[in-house]
Amino acid sequence: MTVQQLETVEQEFLAYVKKMGSYGEALSLVFWDLRTGAPSKGIEQRSEVIGILSADIFDMSTSEKMESFLKELEGKEGLSEITVKTLTECRKEFDRNKKIPKEEYQEYVKLQAIAESTWEKAREASDFAMFEPYLEKLVAFNKKFITYLGYEGTPYDRLLDEYEPGVTVEVLDRVFGQLRESIVPLVKQIAESKKELKTEALFKHFSKAKQEEFTLKLVEELGYDFEAGRLDETVHPFAITLSQKDVRITTRYDENDFRMALFGTIHECGHAVYEQNISSDLMGTPLSAGTSMGIHESQSLFYENMIGRNKSFWKRHYDRLKEYSDGQFDSLSLDEYYEAINESKPSFIRIEADELTYPLHVMVRYEIEKELFNGNLQVKDLPKVWNEKMEEYLGIVPENDAKGVLQDVHWSGGSFGYFPSYALGYMYAAQFKNTMIKDIPNFDALLEEGNVTPIREWLTENIHKHGRLKKPLDILRDVTGEELNATHLIRYLEAKYKEIYNL
Amino acid sequence: MTVQQLETVEQEFLAYVKKMGSYGEALSLVFWDLRTGAPSKGIEQRSEVIGILSADIFDMSTSEKMESFLKELEGKEGLSEITVKTLTECRKEFDRNKKIPKEEYQEYVKLQAIAESTWEKAREASDFAMFEPYLEKLVAFNKKFITYLGYEGTPYDRLLDEYEPGVTVEVLDRVFGQLRESIVPLVKQIAESKKELKTEALFKHFSKAKQEEFTLKLVEELGYDFEAGRLDETVHPFAITLSQKDVRITTRYDENDFRMALFGTIHECGHAVYEQNISSDLMGTPLSAGTSMGIHESQSLFYENMIGRNKSFWKRHYDRLKEYSDGQFDSLSLDEYYEAINESKPSFIRIEADELTYPLHVMVRYEIEKELFNGNLQVKDLPKVWNEKMEEYLGIVPENDAKGVLQDVHWSGGSFGYFPSYALGYMYAAQFKNTMIKDIPNFDALLEEGNVTPIREWLTENIHKHGRLKKPLDILRDVTGEELNATHLIRYLEAKYKEIYNL
């Protein structure tokens, strides 16, 4: 191929990939709409639209055209970095979609749908046996897929790689072990401490309209660009990217627990700010997305906890919160409020857990998944193992499976290997923060001033802008000079919680 | 082909058409989103999505696959009525899209975009000369397209046929002439009448939140199904069909003129109720849509005027309106209110015109379009002819072109032949009403009771359910036993306005 021919093929390839992205954008709009107010009677027909657009993307990702692009471009000199990395993403998709026989995959997709609706009923009835046969099939499918796709290390590493490239069982065992050694004793110390936090005010009535007003101003100040996004209500809040110029966030208002909307929106804002600030050079390629689930979660958790649950942040905002509220905070000092929103105690439900105990919930799931795929754990034994692990890590045992092994939707959709990302997010965030304060030593003062811009810009410069150009552990290494470790997270949690609980 | 083979091809054809419909559904969602709050920075990339989905539909409508379906199925015995009529729709699309050379059409699409943005600026500056060269090109393109597509009767009939199949210049000259002969003198009589209507209350402050609450309840009572639709805010209100199970309406609130949202929403509700009640047998085919612009407009106008501006309707709702309002109606009797919302006087802007003068605005445009395509009228002479016609029909001359020939967006998008549908809607509605009251003699009593169901069911049974299975004039004939005429509209308007103005 001449240089000119190569350039032509490269341009055609990028246009082809952009078209796939446009189908994805339409699909994202459909999902956003479904979750923010699409009328119920239209859903059945809308699922046809989803099927068609998904099939278009799938077909394009495995087409002869794609195959020939890969063949003609891979390994060639003179391609842009964006093209090279885009080829890597397309190759990964191509191989995965080609290696799994189409019929088996279609069967699996059908199973996912039935499994998810069965899981809903099983959780409702707190009846694991109802869900068990479906979960067994989902595990079996995934084991088969792992053999089709191949793996280095252990079978479960293959699943982890989908969500957090480079993070293996070996890595997780090390960092989760390190984290657990420090957290489990700390959780115990807190449980034994005599300190009573004043949390009643958190659950007093706070009008939805006022919450909304307060939250909107807050996320705007935090750097969320409303000209490239919007905030809507939904049942299970999420952030969704249509394009990097249209990244939408959603929230849910609970008039008897304002933390739901407040910290939930700040969390989604962290996800959205990441995607809004990816370099525009990557627009229209699969690189215009967060690089991994864990790095994504590091951004949402950075916003939610390092900013949103920081005392300096509330030095600025607490008086305004009082103004908007119905008076419940009038007799609560700033310190008392800060402690209340940072209360930690073992609980059954992961998504309701506090910053300190949350990673332990994740580890329960990680140990189970690891044993399912690398060991001899049987699906039927999950409830028992779940409860044992909860006892071991958190010191509590759920009274039923609805509050235990059946609580999460993930497994019913066949998502194994996803959970560790949540805990990785905490570690990444703490590592980033540790480096950031060397560049921005006045971090707390900036929060108190309401000037988040330097912090957001630091994140953009170091993390956001790269999109998927860099792998998660490369970003971590480039930014912090360190490998993944739990040291900074442990230091952060110990400092914070020892102060709050006078330990 | 054996019967079995034919059946297989028929099923494949219907699946193919359904897929086209699904792309259309995704596209409708994109348009709805763009007009109800999509963030501004995302629009440029979203236009790529629009381009791709539109191209998919276009390509499918002119593909070799489509050609072979048409060839194998057209004229065959044993096909369902739905298939036969769907073939007719597809043939029409196929021929139109094939007969116009693709390059010319693409050039035309580009022109449309530039022309529309130029028109906006020209209207802003009230400078027809700025828009003139673009309008000239648009007319020239359409003249060329007419020769490609061919026509019976006159060239302009070809354009009319796009919006109102079967309604020709011959028909329009007859019915518009009949209508004008009665309306023009009536408008003059009203202008000369001494009666002063008490309209000040209409323009007093009415809070948006209260308007919204009132309007929502109203359209629900009028039979709009909120499980198959939703109401949002927008700048230029519209109804849009994603599928017949998801037909959305939009509105605009003016706190100093509540009529905008109230009658606007009732109008869009009429459009939406039509599409929501098309027979579900037609779902997934191009027949699942209103049969023509005119019949569509007959339903929205029936709702807006025959129901929403009817005195019996307000006997039920006026007290509630008073409750929701800020007190401005307290000293206005029901009769005075009824007269105020039915005030008629010549005005410059079509979309602000009342029920009586509105058709005259349409006729000004009709006469101009007819002369442009069938006669010798030159684009440069449009402002002059516009003002002459306004003088002749409405007795007023706009002070500038912004309030005259430049007021409507339609021509800038190349939509010639569309305007007559608006006036046809009035005639159809009056003809339908005349027949309906033979079946439902207690029409007014039902409105007063708030029981619109029998009225809605009558419209569904006679009009809605057929979708595009029947052509507009066939529906009219089947329902009323009459040809298109202005008699019932004239009677309705004369009775109404002579009472209001004591003539």
TrEMBL record, chains A, B:
<keyword id="KW-0862">Zinc</keyword>
<feature type="binding site">
    <location>
        <position position="297"/>
    </location>
    <ligand>
        <name>Zn(2+)</name>
    </ligand>
</feature>
<dbReference type="InterPro" id="IPR001333">
    <property type="entry name" value="Peptidase_M32_Taq"/>
</dbReference>
<feature type="active site" description="Proton donor/acceptor">
    <location>
        <position position="268"/>
    </location>
</feature>
<comment type="similarity">
    <text>Belongs to the peptidase M32 family.</text>
</comment>
<keyword id="KW-0378">Hydrolase</keyword>
<protein>
    <recommendedName>
        <fullName>Metal-dependent carboxypeptidase</fullName>
        <ecNumber>3.4.17.19</ecNumber>
    </recommendedName>
</protein>
<keyword id="KW-0482">Metalloprotease</keyword>
<dbReference type="GO" id="GO:0004181">
    <property type="term" value="F:metallocarboxypeptidase activity"/>
</dbReference>
<keyword id="KW-0121">Carboxypeptidase</keyword>
<feature type="binding site">
    <location>
        <position position="267"/>
    </location>
    <ligand>
        <name>Zn(2+)</name>
    </ligand>
</feature>
<dbReference type="Pfam" id="PF02074">
    <property type="entry name" value="Peptidase_M32"/>
</dbReference>
<keyword id="KW-0645">Protease</keyword>
<dbReference type="GO" id="GO:0008270">
    <property type="term" value="F:zinc ion binding"/>
</dbReference>
<keyword id="KW-0479">Metal-binding</keyword>
<comment type="function">
    <text>Broad specificity carboxypetidase that releases amino acids sequentially from the C-terminus, including neutral, aromatic, polar and basic residues.</text>
</comment>
<dbReference type="GO" id="GO:0006508">
    <property type="term" value="P:proteolysis"/>
</dbReference>
<feature type="binding site">
    <location>
        <position position="271"/>
    </location>
    <ligand>
        <name>Zn(2+)</name>
    </ligand>
</feature>
